[in-house]
Amino acid sequence: MRKRAGLTVEKITQAAAALADEVGIQAVTLSALARDFGVKDASLYAHVKNLQDVRTRVALLAAEEMSDELAAAIAGRSAKGALMAFADAYRAYALRCPGRYAATQMGLDLDQISDAKGFVRNIELTYAVLRAYELEEPDLTDAVRFMRSTFHGFITIEATGGFGHPRDLDGSWRRVVESVHTALRQWPRGTD
Length: 192
Known about the structure:
Elements: H1 9-23, H2 30-37, H3 41-44, H4 51-74, H5 79-96, H6 98-104, H7 110-113, H8 117-130, H9 139-159, H10 169-185
Helix pairs in contact: 1-4, 1-6, 4-5, 4-6, 4-8, 5-6, 5-9, 5-10, 9-10
């Protein structure tokens, strides 16, 4: 199969990421991407395996972008300051790039992402933030899950307009992150 001039995996991934931010990752299709490029669907198969491959590539791109932003936010900070900066960067990325963020939350093939730079770095940064709380396994894994689910839950509800109360969302966000900090400091250790 002949590759379309100018069409690359990187261009397809960038276009898919932009489309995901507009319409949602689940609405990204090979047909929609082909239309954007002015080619037939079959032309994309010279560059990507299938739709799942495209969505995985968007997730990998997003993980790298998000990790870069998280690293910049927490640089030189520790403990509560690092947690607050991490949380704010996490929220900002998820709200600014909703389709890309959603791609990072999909059930992905662990073989494809286990050594992916962005995902590995994201995990390392999360653990670095939690280091100040002196947690050991299995508490550390539980704390990561607690933090991630708390942030993800708030952001998902915020992004869909689910918070109907007129209270300022930034004020609520601050209280949520403060509460995460308090919970991490008072973590019930070794209860299993």
